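User: Sequence recovery, please. Input:
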């Protein structure tokens, strides 16, 4: 797993969600694709994110529990793992420690 992205543009303005519990920055690549790099802080309850395009969430550090769409079960993901969320869907995520992630937009 590469620990950096080379030859990219970074949008200066951060994306702030849930009162600062999740903060990310958008990274744009020469081929027109984009990703976001962010941190989710520990939460007392799950945060719900809506997706438009399909997303693959790569966990860089920490661990989290994720429930995708209407699934009855949540699954544990740790650093080095990733999970996929379809477009026009949603997922709930919770963590008890700071979670670094990369969101790969795949649609």
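Assistant: Recovered sequence (107 residues):
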């Amino acid at each position: 797993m590469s620990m950096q992205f080379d030859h990219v543009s970074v949008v200066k303005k951060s994306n702030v969600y849930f009162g600062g519990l999740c903060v990310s920055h958008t990274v744009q690549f020469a081929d027109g694709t984009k990703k976001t790099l962010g941190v989710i802080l520990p939460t007392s309850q799950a945060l719900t994110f809506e997706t438009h395009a399909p997303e693959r969430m790569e966990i860089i550090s920490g661990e989290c529990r994720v429930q995708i769409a209407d699934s009855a079960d949540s699954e544990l993901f740790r650093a080095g793992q990733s999970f996929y969320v379809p477009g026009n869907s949603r997922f709930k995520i919770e963590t008890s420690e700071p979670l670094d992630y990369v969101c790969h937009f795949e649609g």
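The longest strand covers residues 22-29.
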